[in-house]
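Practice problem 4.
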């Protein structure tokens, strides 16, 4: 299941259903300098995927990057009890049943500082998403704030993608824009993201953008 994107970074995808829509969720895996693995937005990990992860390194960090992508966090941490859990601000209040976590801050923590940068996308309190940048590969990692739905979709999924503006286009979905409470704060954060030397855009739903990635990201974030 692991798909290599560049040296030291992989992704794995799983299908699931939300409100009757069949969706694909992506987990991004980064290998840090000490060989340990950083898991972004964990998906369901079966025995086969667990074996693939074990072959590349020990899982050290599990990250729930926003207030939505946390469904498989506890199951993931049960598999990797030695891993530290980092989650979106406010997630502990929303999900008190989750394992003890460290809230993500605007700046990267010492555990991955200098390897993975991060920006908290302020102004969308119902999402509270942190966006990450893997320096070595030039990969920016979004969860829900930017999406692009490619490939074969069912009619309901295709309709939803067209209505939200994400069908074959990297953009901030209309469903996310409706949740924005502070456009100025969000614009400031978007400019910080655009300052990164991005060569690849990874999103949880559902594709990777590698051709003219920075230009595509600039167009996407220009609508916030």
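Answer key:
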């Amino acid at each position: 299941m692991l798909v290599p994107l560049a040296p030291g970074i992989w992704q794995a995808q799983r299908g699931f259903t939300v409100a009757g829509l069949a969706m694909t969720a992506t987990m991004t895996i980064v290998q840090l300098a000490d060989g340990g693995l950083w898991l972004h937005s964990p998906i369901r990990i079966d025995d086969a995927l667990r074996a693939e992860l074990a072959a590349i390194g020990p899982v050290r960090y599990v990250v729930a990057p926003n207030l939505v992508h946390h469904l498989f966090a506890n199951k993931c941490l049960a598999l990797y009890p030695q891993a530290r859990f980092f989650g979106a601000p406010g997630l502990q209040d929303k999900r008190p049943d989750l394992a003890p976590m460290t809230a993500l801050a605007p700046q990267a923590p010492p555990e991955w500082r200098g390897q993975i940068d991060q920006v908290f996308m302020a102004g969308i309190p119902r999402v509270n998403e942190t966006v990450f940048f893997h320096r070595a590969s030039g990969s920016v990692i979004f969860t829900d704030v930017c999406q692009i739905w490619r490939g074969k979709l069912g009619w309901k999924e295709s309709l939803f993608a067209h209505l939200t503006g994400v069908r074959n286009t990297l953009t901030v979905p209309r469903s996310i824009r409706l949740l924005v409470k502070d456009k100025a704060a969000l614009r400031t954060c978007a400019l910080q993201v655009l300052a990164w030397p991005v060569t690849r855009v990874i999103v949880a739903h559902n594709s990777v953008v590698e051709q003219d990635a920075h230009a595509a990201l600039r167009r996407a974030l220009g609508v916030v």
